[in-house]
Specification:
This protein is α+β, with helices and mostly antiparallel strands. Helices cover 39% and strands 17% of the residues.
Length: 87
């Protein structure tokens, strides 16, 4: 993997669709202003988890007691709200 291609601020403004399409394909760019690097456009690296990986990771997850969760939420929130339209 080489250095990212340089594009100037004007190119980014005028060719943004083409440049973003290239980023979507995996290309990276260094954006310059007056010849000085100002920032980088990099593709997001998405990591997908298989169903088996998710299931394996879930075996060590905490067990949630729905009644206790409901009680904790009720303690933290004012659930007795007044109806603003009540007469």
């Amino acid at each position: 993997m080489g250095l990212p291609a340089e594009i100037n601020q004007r190119d980014l403004r005028l060719r943004s669709k083409d440049i973003m399409d290239a980023v979507e394909r995996g290309e990276s760019f260094t954006v310059t202003r007056d010849g000085r690097p100002m920032g980088q456009l990099l593709p997001l690296r998405r990591r997908f988890v298989t169903r088996a990986q998710f299931a394996a990771a879930s075996t060590t997850a905490a067990v949630i007691d729905p009644d206790r969760l409901r009680a904790d939420v009720a303690d933290d929130l004012d659930l007795d709200l007044d109806d603003p339209y009540a007469r």
